[in-house]
Fold:
Amino acid sequence: MRRTRSMLAVALVGGLFILLSPDAAWAGGWDSIEPKRDHYLPGQTAVLRGRFASNHLKGSGRIEGGPYYAYLLPPSGGGFALIDPPTIPEGAISLGVLRFGALSREDDGWLYATARLTFTVPDVPSGHYPVSFCNDPCRSSTIGWLGGGGIRIVHTALEARLMDRNALLESRLRGMRLALRRSEKQAEALIERVDKAKASQGALQAQVAAMTDRLRTASKPAPAGSPVPTWAAVAAIVALLLLALAVASRRPRSRRNVRPVTDTSPNELDELPRVLAGSLRRLRSPGDRCRAQDPAELATRSHP
Structure:
């Protein structure tokens, strides 16, 4: 996964480097003429060549509208610049006439041609220089889709190597800046997530506090009942006193007529079964008594 990300980052940085390179073939969306070498020293012969679509484009010139004269323009920030007709920029150096090859029609139906520029590199400070052209009088600085080109001029081979090293470091710096911007975005997203987590934590803490308060309220003992009013206490005491007086006014029967069994004489004890038997006979129902008597006696009683 890390290797894949690294390859993607390198490809992206490389694409940005090509995009920002002054010698990009499609700089500004135009076709261009490119140098055969990476850099040139003053006095050397430079050759710029490129193939371009020569179809008519509104606002652009045609090959037959020439001759077109090329110029070395002062260095620009983007490394690519065009002459703005009808004025040739101040400080532009004439390089010669732009030559064209034969036209050819490709399978896509477009007409293509080859443009070539050969010149002696002027003695100018080291740097990237745009190359543009215009006809005479200057009316068109483009031909079909051809927009110009660029060249890098140095004074020593060491300077060229240093410039290459500088370009490499600049590309790495751009890559680091890109990685830094990504890291900043990731950090912002992480900070946003942390803020949301803190908000959620605060909400949870509030819920826990509310539940804790409810639990404490539920665990408290029920409040004691209100104290008994004074009048109720007095009434209860009076009722108790009255009840005590009522109980005390009910005296038990005199025990003087009750003789315990232990005080009975032996003769009386002997008479006790007989007395009990008589009592039982008296307690019997009238029907029982009738059945117990003699029938003749009953007849005599029923017919006096």
About this structure: Residues 176 and 182 are 10 Å apart (CA to CA). Residues 23-155 form a domain with the Immunoglobulin-like fold (CATH 2.60.40). The radius of gyration is 65 Å.
